[in-house]
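Aim 2 progress update. The chain analyzed this quarter is reproduced below.
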Amino acid sequence: MGRDSAALIEGRELPAAGEMVSAIVLDSNVVIYLGANRQHALRIESPFKLRFGPAELEVIYGPYEAPAWTPSHLTELATLVAKRLLHASAYTNGELSLEFEADEVLNLVVDPNPVYEAWSYSYGGLLLHCPPGGDLHGATLRGEP
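Predicted structure tokens:
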């Protein structure tokens, strides 16, 4: 699929673009906090891809799944702490793409899940979530920042 601004939710990047990763928390999912006060939260509820230059890793974390998933590549994920998020794009097909400041390409991609919500983004009172199947056509950031 070709990506352009028309495929972005509301035709623009998420407000988290430009912020630094302040923490990564592992609870029932992976939660990436951005901003000095952790005001932006990206909750990822399914396996996702982390790209370092030419290498692509699948990050897996699901301790409450039945059976529990074997975690993988969490150490590599931790390297995002203190990195600046250059681009934060949510597409109408349900894909979330994050590009971080680094010496080489460093990005994170979450594909939609056919069965459950793959990811969500919150900032103040704003909320955007990827529903099962990922159809975000007509989606908006609901609420106030």
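The first strand starts at residue 21 and ends at 26. The mean pLDDT is 90. These observations will guide the mutagenesis experiments scheduled for the next reporting period.
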